[in-house]
Design a protein that fits this description.
Radius of gyration: 21 Å
Number of helices: 13
Shape: globular
Distance between the termini: 22 Å
Length: 398
């Protein structure tokens, strides 16, 4: 596995150094594991990829056809910074169809993946030094983007007793200790798969409004849940900023296309930022994304495949000594407690890749406090790969 170096490692005392801002950004361990796995594959080894949240299925056929049509049309121009009006209208219709909520197309911002959405949201809402509550365990890029923008991530601990969902009590305690400017939640969550129940999401929104922090809801795994309802923060807070993406549910990771829903008073500020930072999301991906919402049968078939993978792993893991996992209500991850096997999840993952040919992500990516006891396994791959992973783990762990 790739050896992680400090920003100044290997440099002489006279070598130039990166900015302090850049030095505060931690490595994204899932991507480091992916690089190490790719190096093994380049040497001819067969690796099962369970390290990154990347669907193995292709984008829906209609998406590909729309992109091919756009390519055949010739020029691929810039668009308005907020996105193609037709795509913004189609996304707004999605909220009416899926949630029964009326969202004006003018509040939709098309982004270069959800990553650009977080950058725009953080810059549009907060000044340097502001504290933003982020879930722990949680998606590591939240912290890194905040650090890069001179903002302060404030870990919001999630507990087994709460099914690893944030609570209003936890939010109040964190705000009382040092006032927050914002709070970010994710449902379904990465790495836990936890879905925040609608009544708890409503309570969190109400608490944030009462205390003052701006509410940001990461909903990129909406559409990927297993027997539990998912709801949007827009139902409970008209000023919430919602981030979503075509990457996960519609299998469009490499297309780099997502969206935000922002309150009307924030639209112009976000537009100015988007104009200068990104100009626009890729035209080709925007045209293709318009076709994604109609690919209902293909999307459901992919979700059913994830459900089968999830059932396979949940059935097999207890017999492998990996029985303590987070809820996995949605998304496509099992976050497994490996404390009965090791106190060094990073070393465990390194050996698992080297000796069993399975790439998975150590929990330190998601939780600086307890992550050394956890490993995240993605089940976004094929059913055959998940079955092979179980077979390899059974032999390796023995």
């Amino acid at each position: 596995m790739t050896v992680l170096l400090s920003p100044s490692a290997g440099l002489s005392s006279s070598s130039p150094l990166p900015s302090q801002r850049a030095a505060r950004v931690a490595p994204f361990l899932a991507m480091d594991v992916m690089s190490a796995a790719a190096a093994r594959e380049a040497r001819g080894d067969a690796v099962i990829h369970m390290e990154v949240g990347q669907p193995s299925a292709p984008a829906p056929r209609a998406v590909i056809a729309a992109a091919q049509g756009a390519l055949a049309g010739g020029a691929l121009p810039y668009t308005q910074a907020l996105g193609l009006p037709a795509l913004r209208a189609r996304i707004a219709r999605h909220y009416a169809d899926t949630h029964g909520i009326d969202v004006a197309p003018g509040r939709i911002v098309v982004t270069t993946g959800s990553s650009a959405g977080f950058i725009l949201a953080f810059l549009g809402l907060f000044d340097a030094g502001a504290r933003i509550a982020v879930p722990q365990p949680g998606y590591p890029a939240y912290r890194s983007i905040l650090h890069a923008l001179d903002l302060v991530p404030a870990p919001l601990p999630l507990a087994d007793t709460d099914r690893y969902a944030p609570t209003s009590a936890g939010l109040r305690a964190l705000h009382a200790a040092d006032p927050l400017a914002g709070v970010l939640v994710m449902s379904p969550a990465n790495p836990s798969g936890t879905v925040i129940a609608p009544e708890r999401l409503a309570d969190l929104c109400a608490t944030a409004r009462a205390l003052g922090p701006r509410f940001i809801s990461d909903e990129i795994y909406h559409g990927l849940s297993y027997g539990v309802p998912t709801d949007t923060a827009l139902r409970y807070d008209p000023d919430a900023v919602v981030i979503n993406s075509f990457s996960k549910t519609w299998c469009m990771t490499g297309w780099r296309i997502g969206w935000m829903v922002v309150p009307e008073w924030l639209v112009r500020a976000i537009e100015r930022l988007a104009q200068n930072l990104f100009i626009s999301a890729p035209y080709l991906s925007q045209v293709a994304a318009m076709a994604a919402f109609d690919a209902v049968e293909e999307v459901e078939a992919v979700r059913a495949g994830y459900a089968a993978n999830r059932a396979l792993l949940l059935d097999a893991f207890p017999g492998l000594g990996l029985g303590r996992t987070h809820p996995a209500d949605g998304a496509f991850y099992l976050y497994a407690d490996v404390s009965n096997l090791t106190d060094d999840a990073a070393g465990f993952c390194r050996r698992m890749l080297d000796e069993a040919g399975i790439a998975a992500t150590p929990g330190l990516d998601f939780d600086a406090t307890e992550g050394h006891h956890h490993v995240r396994f993605s089940f976004a791959g094929s059913h055959a790969d998940c079955a092979d992973a179980v077979r390899r783990l059974r032999g390796w762990l023995r």
